[in-house]
Amino acid sequence: MNPLNPLVLSLTRRAFLGRSSAGMGMLALASLLDPGVLRGAPTRLPSDRWQGVVNPLHLAPKAKRVIYLYMAGGPSHLETFDYRPRLAQMHGKPMPDSLTRGQPIAQLQGAKLTCFAPQHPFKKCGQSGQEIAEIFPQLSQVADDLCIIRSLKTEAINHDPAHTFMNTGTTISGRPAMGSWLWYGLGCQSENLPGFVVMTSTGRAGQQQPISARQWHSGFLPSRFQGVEFRSKGEPVLYVKNPKGIDAQRQRDVVDAVRQLNELQNKVVEDPEIATRIAQYEMAFRMQTSVPELMDLSKESKKILDLYGTSGGDGSFAANCLLARRLAERGVRFIQLYHRDWDHHGNIKNDVKVTAGEVDRGAAALLRDLKARGMLDETLVIWGGEFGRTPMAQGSGRDHHMKGFSIWMAGGGIKGGITHGSTDDFGYNAVEDVVTVHDMHATMLHLLGVDHKRLTYKFQGRDFRLTDVHGNVVKKILA
Amino acid sequence: MRTNNWLRMVMIGAALVSLAGLARSEAPLPRVVEFNHHVRPILSDNCFACHGPDENTRKGNLRLDTEEGVLGARKEGKVIVPGEPERSELYLRLIGHGDRQRMPPARFGKKPTAQQIAIVRRWIEQGAKWQKHWSLLAARRHEVPRIEGSTWGRNAIDAFILARLEQEGLKPSAEADRRTLIRRLSFDLLGLPPTPEQVDAFLADPAPDAYEKLVDRLLNSKHYGERLAQYWLDLVRYADTGGYHSDNHRDIALYRDYVIDAFNTNKPFDQFTLEQLAGDLLPQATRAQKIASGYNRLLMTTEEGGAQEKEYRAKYAADRVRNVSVVWLGLTMGCAECHDHKFDPIQSKEFYRFAAFFADVQERAVGRQVQDRLPTPEQAQQLKAIDEKIAVLQKRLNTITPELEKAQAEWEKTQMGKERKGLPREIGAILNTEPAQRTPRQKEALANYHRSITPLLQSVRQELAEVQKAKADLLAKIPATLITSAGAPRMMRVLPRGNWLDDSGEVVAPGVPASLAPALSVKNRRATRLDLAQWMVAPENPLVARVFVNRLWKLTFGQGIVRTLDDFGSQGTWPSHPQLLDWLAVEFRESGWDIKKMMRLLVTSATYRQASTVNAELRQRDPYNYLLARQARFRLDAELVRDNALSISGLLNETIGGPSVKPYQPAGYWAMLNFPKREWQNDSGANLYRRGLYTYWCRTFPHPSLVAFDAPSREECTVERPRSNTPLQALVLLNDPIYVEAARAFAERIVKEGGSTPESRIQFAFRQAVNRRAVAEEVKIVAALYQKHRAQFQGDRAAAAALLTIGAHPLPREIDPVELAAWTSVARVVLNLHETITRN
Q1: Mean pLDDT lowest for which of A49-63, B90-104, B478-492?
Q2: Is 90 exceeded by the pLDDT of residue B162?
Q3: Is 3.40.720 the CATH number for A65-233+313-477?
Q4: B176 with B610: CB under 8 angstroms?
Q5: Could you say which DSSP state residue B712 is in?
Q6: Candidate from A244, A280, A284 with C-beta closest to B803
Q7: Strand duo A65-72 + A334-340: pairing
Q8: What CA–CA distance (Å, rounded) separates A328 from A195?
């Protein structure tokens, strides 16, 4: 019997599979479209690479992938990208009641609200004259690549729900993260790596706010679209290292024996899940080589290491940035780097400088490196946190703030060197060209060739999307 | 070969077409179009968003989810003229006739297929008979179909299944062989594989009711409760941590153990419902009922600084509505938090009325929840005995006797005129006072002090200290848990658009949606959680019994009769066997909500006993297995993958219940947790080998090897886990230390119990893991690996030694490490087989 027959026969079933069977219908199709498999080439095992449901794309794409520099804790827009001289003049005076009355507030509940001046000077940078705080000496030099959005707003004021909102478009748990949506929608370009990779780093200032794995969970999407955490310390991916005493060849022997026995069993029961299982063991085995190779920075040139300011293995944000470039080169669709040290409730003058220093060089190096390799045009880079910080003082720091804050975008399809939108004179409310989180998601999807209204998944009787029932593409920032 | 290739291309082509959703439209139109089955899903999906229950977004004053709306008089003209599609506006709009705008509008992104439009047309032609949504009508006991000339079938279930198969011209599959049956039953009822001895006993049992005896043995096993509990815990989102932000620990294991016990003792489902929703409100609530009421506390809670109380009160209220409505009613009431439900007759106001049932639950909106300590009956007994003993001793210490008075007088004399070291100042002052001058209080204080030091009472004091220590020890052992205590209900307002800052909404009292029977009416008082629970299990409630039997069906057949286990509303799927579902629901209710009886009914049916293999015709005709002409084949759930490996290897610790346990977890996995920072400490000893359902459930970072196999975070209700098949699963089974350790423990058994030849040992391994003999070719593959690795480990004894130190299981000294390492390779292969982790 031709071992391919069960696969082919299974196609009708698998092609139809809906949510109840985890939506794996495309898998067998992907296998069958592999020419090696069609020729029946004996050495080639079926590939299980996910091709995406938006296939072909809705729109001509401007970017192929996203690198999301997630500044967890809530960076103060007032000390980074939103220059507010009026706030400096008002320092120590009461905040206008008209702005704050009846508005939700986090730790300043019940406190007297006074204006707090920006703690660091800004300067005009690049040919575009973008205003950036001086605590970002490196990013200032790539200002002409940045599109600074000063008018973002969100809907949650505490870290946990605000992270969930930023990643999934809702504060209710159980919905897919944006990286999962992208992997599901667009597929992955790598045979050896997942489509959604997460890395984390921790700084030395501020409060190290916890982050939940919920932030990279696939929610109601099939769980294969869950973000995979790559770790710069310990095993790079959980369980990717062989057990002690088992070298690569011994592991290969075990995987081979498992495959042969699974193939024999498949002749008896013709279960398409077995073909998938075989493919997944192959992928797992490849990951055991490809992941350590990926994480090993020893072959990077000294020039590159100097650019990023790391030699790797230090768990730093800069090292993660360099790894992000390597992941991008290998076809990973969504790469998310969390740096979680931006929660500056007190002593913000010093601490925001420390934290900015932790990300400045890495982020700028990433943009330069991508550009030098001709990859920036096809890579969307986003920098931002879950919310901003209050113009009001909380002692020597600032509280959480959701009504107006800043992020920046760069790369594929983005107009560099512009500042989009504005908050009011106090940096309190986003008032001009307001961008909601859903708008930001819609724009990201648009750049990748996806109409955000058409990337849907049926759950509990409803067609869900990343943008819920909201979201408009921010046309003004498109190149 | 050429033909084969051609055939493949055709089939791929067909698959591509079906992927585009076109193949379905080629199915023939139903002869008789039934509104509920055929038409409502089309209207619901395409029209209800603008012409449905939500009056705030309803367009053109047109409503298509009610009989009145579809068939009633309208000044704009008739929506439907029964029998005449060409005069029915609904149909004309669907086809965009003349200059009418085609509906739904293109920007809405929905386009009914030609097939769907044809169905609507035929429905109108056939008289446009309206039906209320099926799940809101009372279930009735349909007559069991009688099939002429058929001998197939063992109980009523089979008659319903066979009747449908006959309609489709299909035949049921043959009965599975006994090895498959016992394996299937063991996984479905216990979540554990059968031992080879159990398989042999079943194979050898000549009794005509051997199967039924097996079923009864399994239903009476203490592991049955664990298996059912595991599913229930997904529904109610049971976890060991609070979920939001710092995600701190809370004691709640007693609730889990209550659920296990409830299934094991076959607590009727109505009682199970009452106790969880309102155990605290039952008269003279027992300890178990209080523990059960912990259900209301299972939701995610926050301790985040700066969280606003009011916001979290609103979150918690909504969370409870979402959970209760999906778990018991199979309704997505959560959709009505911000607006009237788009598809089902649930108003936003009714969402908040439903939430108001729980407004009496006492809890902290922000901060660490208060835990209650609930002694077991034995502990309560011991505590009482200890307290009595303490009282007796205390009394002896407090009682003044002549002997003591004498001793005191002597002691006082010894204290006179000397430097009194170590005496409390107050006592010294009294001693300095002339006895006659001392006040009664001073006298008493002095006597008390004397009794606390006199050697006469030394033994009593020592005994008291010992008993008090025993009491402290006992108290420390009394488990804590979260229970529900009722208090003054918080005010519940409708939150416009779900906005918790908006205080303009109407204040509402507890109530159930008006569209759901029966009406819930209480006189001159506020309705309570107990009223809600009683309403759910009232015979007129159309949903609760159907929803629960559908869940049992999913456990035994792999998917529900209603596929959407969380949605019995109009966007949910039409039941594959509506009459059977109703029959089962009535049977369940009338049995006194007897869960074991229903499980027995399901698993003793001929439908259940079918083989799961699939032939080409079935694959073509019924790829989803909607019609049940075969059994299902699927991967074991995450916890069961673990339990299975531990059981096969002999490592499994079968203890039931107790605090959650911590098996091996990669270091640093919790690094992103904070407030406080935590490091997972592996348990030691036998607790390393407990069943998966006892694994510590941290919501923000659930155990990664369970997550890899689709275990949910239990933040929200999970009615159905995906069954994914991913590379991470391969990495877990190959490399997670518990699976390597299981392999080496299994290898030890293979060497010790599997006879002396490689062949007999391989057969032993297969019988343990997949309950069958290996075929010659399998033996050859495995034997080759064994020989190869044996030779290699011979030359690399250090590698063998390293492999054999993984995990805490002691190394057997009597087996040559090279031999054991080689068999460990074999055991790893067998534990990684697809068949090993598959229930079929």
Answers
A1: B90-104
A2: yes
A3: yes
A4: yes
A5: -
A6: A244
A7: parallel
A8: 10
Whether A130 and A124 have beta carbons less than 8 Å apart is answered as yes
Q: What is the pLDDT of residue A232?
A: 79
Is some CB atom of chain B closer than 8 A to the CB atom of A453? yes
What average pLDDT is seen over chain A? 89
Domain count, chain B: 5
- What is the rounded average pLDDT of the residues A101-110? 87
Q: Is residue A239 within 8 Å of B707, Cβ to Cβ?
A: no
Report the gap between the CA of B341 and the closest CA in chain A (Å): 11
Same domain, B21 and B56: no
* Domain-wise residue ranges, chain A: 65-233+313-477
Interface of A with B in 384-403 (CB under 8 A): 399-400
Looking at residues B224-231, what average pLDDT do you find?
98
Task: Work out the mean pLDDT of chain B and round it to a whole number.
Answer: 93
pLDDT in tens, B302-330: 999 889 999 999 999 999 999 999 999 99
Distances A177 to A172, A180, A215, A466 between C-alpha atoms, Å:
12, 5, 6, 8
> Strands A65-72 and A379-384: what pairing?
parallel
Q: pLDDT tier at A14 (50, 70, 90 boundaries)?
A: very low
Contact partners, residue B296, CB within 8 Å, separation at least 6:
B276, B277, B320, B358, B361, B484, B529
Query: Would you say residue B643 lies in a domain?
Result: no
Residue whose C-alpha is closest to residue B355's, from B382, B392, B324, B386? B324
Phi-psi region of B609 (alpha: psi -120 to 50; beta: other; left: phi over 0): alpha
SS3 string, B635-677, reads ECCHHHHHHHHHHHHCCCCCCCCCCCECCCCCCCCCCCCCCCC
Query: For residues B640 and B32, what is the distance between their CA atoms, to the nearest angstrom?
Result: 45
Angle in degrees, 0-180, between the axes of helices A5-16 and B2-19, rounded to the nearest 10: 10
- Residue B456 located in a structural domain: yes
Say if residue B21 is in the same domain as residue B42.
no
- Residues, chain B, total? 840
| Phi, psi dihedrals of residue A435, rounded to the nearest 5° | -115, 120
Average pLDDT of the segment spanning B588-593? 98
Q: Which residues of B146-174 are buried (b: 16+ CB within 10 A; e: fewer)?
A: eeeeeebbbbbbbbbbbbbbeeeebebbe
Q: How confident is the model at residue B626 (pLDDT cuts 50, 70, 90)?
A: very high
pTM: 0.88
Spatial separation of the C-alpha atoms in residues A318 and A369, rounded to whole Å: 12
Query: Looking at residue B301, what DSSP letter applies?
Result: B
| Total CB pairs under 8 A between chain A and B | 289
Domain extent, residue B826, equals: 735-839
* Residues of B (648-667) whose Cβ lies below 8 Å from A: 666-667
Q: Are residues B397 and B429 in the same domain?
A: yes
Spatial distance between the Cα atoms of A454 and A446, rounded to a whole number of angstroms:
11
Q: Hey, what are B5's tokens?
A: 């290739």
Q: The dihedral of CA A213, A192, A327, A250: what is its sign?
A: positive
- The answer to whether residues B564 and B572 touch, using CB atoms and an 8 Å cutoff, is yes
**H/E stretch holding A153:** strand A146-153
Choose, out of A10, A164, A165, A173, the residue to mutate when testing the contact with B (most B CBs < 10 Å): A173
Tokens matching residue B416:
């006179």
Contact A210 B722 (CB under 8 A): no
Q: What is d(CA B33, CA B514) in angstroms, rounded to the nearest whole number?
A: 29
* Contacting residues of B for A2, CB less than 8 Å apart: 4
- Given a cut of 80, whether residue A18 has pLDDT beyond it is no
3-class SS at A450? Answer: coil
Task: Please report the DSSP string for B425-490 in residue order.
Answer: HHHHHHHHS-GGG--HHHHHHHHHHHHHH-GGGHHHHHHHHHHHHHHHHHHHHSPEE----B-SPP
Taking chain A, what is the end-to-end CA distance rounded to the nearest angstrom?
Answer: 56
